[in-house]
Amino acid sequence: MSDTSDQEQIVAEAKKFAAEEIRPFAADFEEQAAIPKDLIDKMAQKGYLSASFPKEWGGLGLDPVYYGLLTEEIGKACASTRGLITVHTSLVGEAIVRWGSREQKEKWLPLMTSGKKIACFALTEPLVGTDARSVQTTYRKEGAKYIINGSKKWITCGCIADYFLVVAGGEKGIGAFLVEREFGGITTTPIKGLLAGRAAHIAEIEFEDVEVPAENIIGKEGSGFTYVVNTALDHGRYSIAWGGIGIAGEALDNMVTYSRQRSQFGRKLYKHQLIQGIIGDAVTKTHAGRALCLRAGEMRRDGHPDAVMETTIAKYFTSKIAMEITIDAVQVHGGNGCYNRYPVERLFREAKILEIIEGTSQVQQEIISSFGLRRYYRV
Ligand SMILES: Cc1cc2nc3c(=O)[nH]c(=O)nc-3n(C[C@H](O)[C@H](O)[C@H](O)COP(=O)(O)OP(=O)(O)OC[C@H]3O[C@@H](n4cnc5c(N)ncnc54)[C@H](O)[C@@H]3O)c2cc1C
Description:
Layout: H1 4-22, H2 26-32, H3 37-46, H4 64-77, H5 79-99, H6 102-113, E1 119-122, E2 138-142, E3 145-155, E4 163-170, E5 173-180, E6 186-190, E7 203-213, E8 217-218, H7 224-261, E9 263-264, E10 267-268, H8 273-301, H9 307-333, H10 343-354, H11 361-375
Parallel strand pairs: 1-4
Antiparallel strand pairs: 2-3, 3-7, 4-5, 5-8, 6-7, 9-10
Bound molecules: flavin-adenine dinucleotide.
The site of flavin-adenine dinucleotide has 19 residues, from strand 1, strand 3 and helix 11.
């Protein structure tokens, strides 16, 4: 792990990088429905595609707190770009770091670090979403290979991915496989007409008799969900928790700035008490959300047994307040808030996605409630 001042510097640089290379172009990325390849290459050179990987595997070695802060900076500038980091680094990369064999790490992580290979996480299917253990994609063992068949949907970066972490069911239960595009039998189709995440190369994917070498299974056949998928989702939720703070913070910046520049009734908007109320709430919620993310990050860093639960709480809360704050940011902008020349219009759409991905808010509520019913039961 890097020392604190190094990590602070990396986050400060990421903030500058986001200001120069990402934020000014976020609307164009959406318009062109793509995160440009040269941006992905630049992020790889900076180490942002492997910021949380240990240095041993070519990563920046950021601890969870600083990795979260870096995610916030990227997510503040562009949610789709943050989405790439969430799936490539947090979901797939961290699952390999945790459950991959030494050979698998040596083979895949340097290529992911350098950006030569982009990874996506393929769990959701056309007929299977929240009930993820019921995946219909199948694997069967044939000699030294697995044969994979099935469809996946809504897969972030699916269109550009070289590696697909595919969750499939078979004789022994659920398995997690690192499927490489070059194996053949994979068709990716871009999903158009999305509310948001339009630049995130989201795909529907068909796997047709894809032959996967046995050495590409991560962990054990049958324990793919309990270990690999749950690890991936936990890291994904942590990243998205910070993504929520990114969107909330960006909406707050825009709301405050606009209220100080536009006048109605001969006064700047912020001079009106009802606008002050909106701003006061947005500041409070953003600070509270960041505090939850920092707490989750510290607990993850320290290996606290409640770290996963605190991450779930942070993800649930920040996606909720990102939605609330972006609604208010649109309100403060009036008609201009409904116009795509103003970032709040996009932020408002991006916030909604966070309440759906990596487990919907209803699922998070159930998990948090079940924890609360145990933790706060007094007899
Ligand atoms: C932009 C975007 C990017 C995505 N990226 C990825 C990706 O990279 N990889 C991937 O695998 N998936 C991805 N997804 C899929 C996402 O994870 C799913 O959409 C999500 O898990 C919900 O599944 P679903 O859409 O099938 O909704 P459903 O499961 O059909 O749920 C519909 C509604 O019913 C509610 N519901 C369902 N079950 C219950 C219950 N037991 N109790 C109460 N309410 C319930 C849900 O909360 C929701 O409100 C992405 C989705 C989007 C929109």
